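This part of the workshop introduces the protein records we will be handling. A record pairs a protein's sequence with a compact description of its fold. As an example, a complete record with its sequence and its C-alpha cells follows.

_____
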Amino acid sequence: MPVASSTATSGRLLSLLSLLQARRDWPGALLAGRLGVSERTVRRDVDRLRELGYPVQAVKGPDGGYRLEAGGQMPPLLFDEEQAVALAVALRIAVGTGAGIEEAAARALATVRQVMPSRLRQRVDVLEIAAAGGSAVQVDTDILLALSLAIRATEEVRFDYEAPAADPGPRPPRRVQPHHLVVRSGRWYLIGWDAVREDWRTYRVDRLRLRVPNGPRFTPREVPGGDVATFLAARFKGSATADVWPCRGEVVLDLPTAYVAPFAGDGVVEEVAFGKTRLLTGSWSWPALAAGLLRFECEIEVVGPPELRAAFAELAGRATRAANHGA
C-alpha cells in the first residue's frame, strides 16, 4: 500500500505541475476539481513542489490560487506521458523542417527517447514522419530567429533578395513589414506587407539576406481571409483572395473514372457514363489549365467556360507552329 500511495502522489504532482505550466493563474478549487482531490491536498502538493525547487506562488484574490513563476534556478522540467510523446513528435518533425536545427533536434530526440519508459518509446518509434514535397531547403537559423524577433517587435526589415529575374543587375534592398513565418513543403516563407507597393508579398527565406538595423515599427495587419495557411495556399494558386484557382473549367474525358482520379489533384471527379468522366478543375491561367488537361491521353469535351475552349485553340496553334518550325 505505501508504494501504491507514493506512486499515486508522484503521478498527481506531475499532473499538477503540468496544469501549472499550461496557464498563468489557477484557482485552488479549479485545480482540486481537475485533479479529483480536495483543496487541502492541493495545498500539500504545492508545498511538495516548492520543496523540489519549483517557484509556485500563491495568488491573492476572492478565489485564491497558484501561479508557477519563471526563475533562473528552475529545476529540470518534468513531462507527463502525453507531453513526452508530443515533444518527441515535434522534434522528429523539426528534423525535416530545414530550419538549420536538424542535428540539434535529432540529438534532443535521442535524449528524450533514452529517458522514456519502454511503452512510450514503442509509441514514438512507430511514427514515420517525412517532409511532404521533397527534401527541405536549408535556411540559416539566425535569419529565422531575426525575422521572428522582428515580427514580435513589429519592426520593418530590410533585405537583399535573390529573386529570379530577367535583369541580373543589382537591385535596391526590399523593405517589408514582416507578419508571418510559414513552412510549406520543406521551404520557409516570409509573409509581409510591402508599404511601397501597398500589397502583401511572399518571400522564400533561403533567398534573402538581412540588412541591419531594422526599420521603424509598424501597425500589424490581418492577411486577407484571416488565415495564414489559406492565404499562402491561395497565393501559390495565383489567387489574391480565396484558396481557389483563378481559372476553373469543366470537361468530360473519354476515360474511366479510375484512370482520372489519381491524377486529378484537388479537382472534382464524377463518372457520367461507362468509360467517361466529368472533371472540374483549375489552374493559374487558362493556357496552363488546357495544357494540364492534355496530359490525359484521350478525347476531351469542353463543357465550359468559353475561355477554356479558347485556350485549347491557342495551344493548338502553338503546337502547329512548333511542328512546322524548321521543317
